[in-house]
Structure formats: C-alpha cells, structure tokens
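Run log, item B.
One chain of 297 residues. Sequence copied directly from the ordering sheet:
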Amino acid sequence: MLGDLKQLRAFLAIARLGNFTRAAYELNISQSALTIQIQQLEAHLRTPLFDRNRRSVNLTPQGLELFPRIERVVAEIEDLVTHAREASDPDRGTVTVAALPSLAAGLLPRAIHRLNRDYPRITVRIRDTVASRLTYMIRNGEVDFGVGSPVKRDQELVWEKLMTDRFCAFVAPDYPWTTRDTVALRDLAGPPLILPVRESSIRMHIEAAADKNKISLPAAYEAVYNSTIMAMAAQGLGVAILSELVARGGDTSRLRRISIDDPPLYRYIGILRRAGRSLSRPAERLAAVLREVASED
C-alpha cells in the first residue's frame, strides 16, 4: 500500500510540475527512482500516463482522465492516516486549506506563523489554486476550508468575510496613458490590458464589474502568474490590473500604481467551508488566527 501511495504521489507531482527533475526534487528522491515509480504505476494500470519528449512531459488522455480520481484518492488516504494519528491529541493535527495564490503568498503565511507560535504541533497544508478549482475542492471535501473570494453565491458553501481587497492599475513609470493617480473604471477600456487568466478570482471580478457597468475590458495579454503580469507591465506592454494583496506580495518597485474609482473595483476575501460540516479543532484555531490577522490589515 505504501509503495502504491508513493507511485500515486509521484504521478501527481509530475502532472502538476510538468517536469521529472522538479518533481524528483520536490519528492526528495532521485530522478531514476521517480522514473521507476512511474513505470511501475503504468505497468500496474496497464496504460501510459505521460507523453515524454526532451522539452516537456504531458499527460496522455488516459492520464488526464485518471488525474482527478488519483488526486482525490491520495487526499483521502492522507486524511485517513492523519486522522488516525491525531485523534488522541486535540492540540495536534493537520489542517488542509485551499487558497488563492495571492492569499497563499501573503495573508495565510502570516496566520500560520502566529498559529505555530501558540500551537506548534498543528501542521498546515496549503493547496494554492485558482478560484474555480478552490470551490470545487471545498465542495468535495478535499480541504478543511478555503480562503478566497467567491463571485457568486453557492448554496453548498458557508461564507464569512475577512477583509476587502481593492484593485489597482499598474503601469511602467513612462507608460504614455495617464499622468493621474486615479482613473475611472471606464478609462480602462482604452489601453491594452494585462490580466490574469479567466479562471482567476481577480479576472472573474473584473469581468463581473465590466458587465455590471456595461463596459468592455478585453485582455490584450493574459498570464497565470501575477509576477509575469507585473513584468509585462514593467516592460511597457500595457496596463496591468491586480489587487492590493497581490501588489503587497510582489515586486512593484518598477511600476506606478493608479487607483481605480467611479466605481471602485474590489473583492471581498473570506473563509469558505462546506455547509453542514463542522471544522476540526485545529481548523477552527487556524480560522480564528486568520480573523485576527485580517483585522490588522
């Protein structure tokens, strides 16, 4: 069983990172050992899981079909093992949290640092992911709770607001758009926009605001990572729209920040959990610390 579990973890690491070398480093094993594990898993399942070439590693159609099921099985096994080990100690446990990347890089680490000071035997596992995937993980019980910003109400989730995260525009200092420190939402319809991908929370809120105000805000450029968006704006390719939390955790030293008003553009950040499901004591303690840290911002 443990050997099979290692193979499944190896499969998930390669699928997520798209590279054997990085996956081996993350799993702390040699690349040859990782290759053997995948070969054994493919032999056991009697199907190829990856298409390999010199430049990249991609999931085969069979691998794509199996990925969500294997991800769910591994999470359930890990939760089972963790629960068995921690059942006898109420101040010891593991909390698995899904979080938007901007929160996983800022608010959440600060909360974990404070939690570890008072409860050093509580371990926190972070699953940083895009908004659409975050709600899916909460609904399916893959995490204890999530920290995010829902665009629409979901009857399966309970929502608790923590803070407000305003959006701003970022441009290169010499970008020829505006010299003002504040712009209206409609002003963003002119320049080429650099936006996160559609699956991201920030993009969802931008498009919702555009629809509400009957404004078209198409993306001239898209990127998954906020650091890439900032770098593109710093090169003068256009106007990046990101949130204050993102800017706080990134390198904006080469950018000029412009506030967005009339109307202001923002999102609410909060804790999401599955309706009808109580949190474990460790999860409740992390949630309490998140409330404290968010109230200080």
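Observations after the first pass:
- The chain has a mean pLDDT of 89.
- The first helix runs from residue 2 to 17.
Flagged for discussion on Thursday.
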